[in-house]
Amino acid sequence: MLFDSTIVLFLLWRRTRPFAYVVVVGFHVVTFVLFPIGMFPFIMVTAALVFFDPSWPRALIARVRRLPATVRPSVADQGAPPAAPGWKGRVALGAALVYAFLQVVLPLRTHAYGGNVLWHEQGMRFSWRVMTREKNGSATFMVRDSVTGRQWHVPPSQYLTRLQEREMAVQPDLILQLAHQIARDYEATTHHPVEVRADVRVSLNGRMSEPLVDPTVDLAREEDGLGPKAWILPAPEGPPVHLRPTRSARAGGPGA
């Protein structure tokens, strides 16, 4: 919290900017090592460069090449009045306003779905929620031939790497995508329509594992649209599990 609330001020001040950027790099290296948050640290380290003078890339390249840095003088530096923006400038301004509008509206769309977005993840992406949930889960798919009634259990490891399986098992849209792929493969093999159901159990922020997907729903017939997903079960209620030390542990354990 202290870092988030003060680092921008130090980056804005020229005297502290280099030191603040070193802190930014160190902070995000630590978060990358400790937390599985993907590309986020690299994006933030790169984005923080906007606080530096716009000419720093040319100065850096010139220093590497041991050549004097040359910066093209602007119209304002030459004393001429700035020209009125043409149609390109107006288009650029309009595009910037649309971009800013989307950055405000997209994160708010999750409220249209209701429920716990950390659980159902509908509208989770681009919603300003960073490191607010820890989910662990397991998934198994059941395939049933609609004509013969024959059934198969399909582990995700037949399709995914270990990292992909870990991400898929807690995100409903990825579960649906894999279910569709499994359906296509088995229909191509059996030449019959098949049903695909999933047994998915997920733990959210230290809670006990609960079913995430309705195991009675044929996911092969479900579509991934913008509407609410009825096949996603409600989020578990109640606080996370708090483990308390046993009497022997408080006393120092066996042999204490």
UniProtKB/TrEMBL annotation:
Classification via InterPro entries: HTTM_dom, VKG_COase, VKGC_lumenal_dom
Region annotation (Disordered) ranges: 230-256
Transmembrane segments: 20-52
Any one Gene Ontology molecular-function term assigned to this protein's record: vitamin binding
Superkingdom of origin organism: Bacteria
Pfam family, one: HTTM
Keywords noted in UniProt: Membrane, Transmembrane, Transmembrane helix
Residue ranges constituting the Vitamin K-dependent gamma-carboxylase lumenal domain according to the UniProt record: 91-236
Residues of the HTTM domain: 1-56
Name of the protein in question: Uncharacterized protein
Protein species of origin: Corallococcus carmarthensis
